[in-house]
Write the structure tokens for this entry.
Amino acid sequence: MIGRRLEGRVAVITGGAAGIGRATAERFLAEGAQVMIGDLNEAKGVALIERLTDEGHGGNVAFSRVDVSQEPDVVRLIDAATDRFGGLDIMFNNAGFGGAIGPITEMSVDHWDETFAVLVRSVFIGIKHSARAMIRQGGGGAIINTASIAGLAGGVPPMPYAASKTAVVGITKHAAVELAEHRIRVNAVCPGIIFTDLMHLGRPDEADAVRKVIQPWPDRGEPEHIASAVAYLASDDSIFVNGEAHVVDGGYLANGLLAVHPLFGGSRRPTHVGITRGTTGQRNDVQRLPPEASPR
Ligand code: NAD
């Protein structure tokens, strides 16, 4: 039974056209919020709004195509939320992709920069402009950033992704301290293995076989598991929770992060180099490495 803890609140969700963001948009709507979704994948965003409208949420949800790594796009997204719904109470900085892959010795600096722009700069920009809107409005707010258990421990590649998520945890803690005087809480959610297109890359059965080996909880992680944790962090039920990296992973981290991630078939040696752009609809740029370029 889902309560109506977010009645009358306005939320912005980035990466809300798919996966964890989409499940959170649905959860927020069910809890009474109005939701502005921002995503780079316009086709998925438009289709989602059509479905949610058919389901009766029409007046309470809208979509804007944004690239979260670009400050003007994020400003436009937040302005769209405040213009359309009259304020901003909740910001969920969630958009993400896999980013740069490959051995450090082969990785391009451009791919590193693109990864940090999408996964880290976006969170700084999202906090900056949502906090401005919340401070202007008065009355506080809740900001939630999607990190990962990959950001809390070593061992899970790709390295730039894991390093980005560590940075998200650091940003969360610093912002929580700085914004507390405005009654703006800032927390991170750290998902484990969650069955989205980004995680299983279209091979859910293969991913599930590996997941069963490394995750103690018997059931697989679904986007809805993260959505309910984010709804808690967005609501007054977590009113004294601030600067927290909230792990939602079925006990995977407690078990120690084994280097057998579903995406990498249990191998420590990278076999490819380049950048993967997740479910954005943008092109991947990945090449197979010659064996001598893949260090042991
Ligand atoms: P997903 O691919 O299903 O959804 C991510 C969404 O973000 C997509 O709709 C995509 O278009 C959007 N996006 C990507 N780059 C963007 C950009 N530059 N601007 C705007 N939108 C952009 O993936 P997901 O699994 O739901 O991932 C959501 C978040 O959760 C990501 O930050 C990811 O790193 C994190 N995460 C996922 C898992 C997992 O197992 N699925 C685990 C830990 C953390």
